[in-house]
Design brief:
The chain is α/β, with parallel strands linked by helices. The protein folds into three domains: 3-184, Spore Coat Polysaccharide Biosynthesis Protein SpsA, Chain A, CATH 3.90.550; 249-398 and 573-611, Rossmann fold, CATH 3.40.50; 405-566, Glycogen Phosphorylase B (Rossmann fold), CATH 3.40.50. The protein contains 22 helices and 23 strands. The strands form five sheets. Strands 12-11-10-13-14-15-16-23 form an eight-stranded parallel sheet, with helices on both faces. Helix 12 runs parallel beside helix 13 and helix 14 runs parallel beside helix 15. It is elongated, with a radius of gyration of 28 Å. Residues 588-614 have low confidence and may be disordered.
Length: 614
Amino acid sequence: MKTVAIIQARMGSTRLPGKVLRPLAGRPVLWHVVHRLRKCRTVDEIVIATSALPVDDPIEDFGAEQGVRVTRGPEDNVLQRYMLAARRADADIVVRVTGDAPLVDPATLDAMVEALEESGAGYCAARFDVPTIHEGFEPFTRQALEKLSVCAGADPVAREHITAYFKQHPDFVPIHQLDVEPTHQLDGVRLSVDTPSDLDFLEALYEALSADPGEVRLDHVVRLLRTRPELTQLNSRVLQKSATARTRRILFRCDGDGTTGLGHLYRCLALAAEFRDHWGWGVTFAVSTGEVAMARLQAQHFPVEGKPKTDDEGTWLHALAKRIRPDVLFVDVCTGLERGVLARIRSEGVRVAVIDDFTDRRLSADVAFYPPVPQTQDLDWEGFRGRAFVGWEWVPLRRQFTERCPSPSRRVPTILVTMGGADPARLTPRVIRALDVMTEPFKVVVVVGSACPWGDEIGAVIRDAKHAYELRQDVSDMGALMADADMAVSTFGVVAYELAAMAVPSIHLSLSEDHARSADAFQSAGIALSLGPHDRVSDEVIRHALLPLLKDPGRRLQMRARARAAMDGRGAQRIAEAIGSCVEAMGGEHECSEAMMHEPTSEQAGRPACCKGR
């Protein structure tokens, strides 16, 4: 009986493209799989089954480097790829191995193969009723595979997941369930790679166990996680997709550079992480400007499509939507993108969502999301057939801003100065100079974003200042800095919402009249002070606003309490749920937007049904 381990692997993962060749403990994920399979005494040959697409050429190159046979077949039919590999290798027993599960346990796999042979079953798996640490390997007979191809080859579960069909149809072939060793029993743990969080978790296991590449023992993993369960939080929010779950995709259109700032990018990143990790969707970004935005997205492992200089925005976005075929297009831009482009994309079966959009293109959206700023009351919604969500609870923020921390308690308060990722109005050096003539004791932390061009000037101003200033550049964990601040001076934008979510009393300088009007909502809610457009505010006004807040900890506590009551930082989860539930419930059909509508009252005629609370 020849046993062949067939590894299904491809580069085109929807959630983490190229995941099987991403590094883990210094080696590609796929190397770990091959390395551990070579330790199995029952496995006679290892084969990698990938697609015939050019994007998977690196997998064939990897196989050649490792001395492993590679077979190639259709991308959308894993079952056919297995049949091709099994026939070419002349396998009697096939071990289905997933290329994204790098902790194959050789001893358990050997026990499964032996139990399959001895029992005469067609398929062997770990006991279904016992939680196990094992992921990504199961043996079955060549006859079971051939029967699956002939009798169930058109079934989507059989075509994509192979052994999941056996579990769904237990009478299809005889199944032997192998007892799980107590040292391998553990529930609620993910050892496969679908997102960057999964890689972070596996790296943490290697570090905690001080293991060489490919040498982590599963009993050691179980023992470690029983004593340090907090490690599982690294990827606990990642959805384990079911065999029947349909693959969904979302396309984000946003930019981020020194002119527009990074706020649009950051809130789209918050939503993208939610869709990828919690909903299991594939995410792609469409960016027309901003090297900083491109770098940030690539660092977060999101696919990015850049706009060719020769294309206009509408033509490019429409062509991109036709090629990627997303279920949802999420638009967050301040460009001249026309309403008709969104209407055309929507007519082709794509749901459209916009955020904080006050142009007429919002009327072509299925869903629109807004903070409770005064401008929402002025909008004409005639012809809008979707639904608008308005309120503090619909502001999407990255997860680092959902952790609530106790208020700082100290004699010398800390002032956080943050003017966003770009500081296009050059406000940071001006605020430092305004602070420096004050005589009260305080500590200042100055944050300079990666897109800010004034870094050298800010450094020079700090060096000449009489107070102590701590300069932090390109900060990755702003949430931690905000949690440690007594108050803040910031430009108005996404950073204002982040500060509110972290309950930091703030003073806002606005870049425009429109921003100043939005900032008034924060002042009305008692969670911040708005000084208006920056070009109408003198340094003396800044100092006069700072001084009372600096001297009055009771007032700061009151503002913190109001901020906590207004925002919980979970807007990204709510928006993803609103979009995702709609698409999933309606199967992606356009009836979704009509089903979400409410009939407006006579006072609301011409306005959308607005969700203003929960």
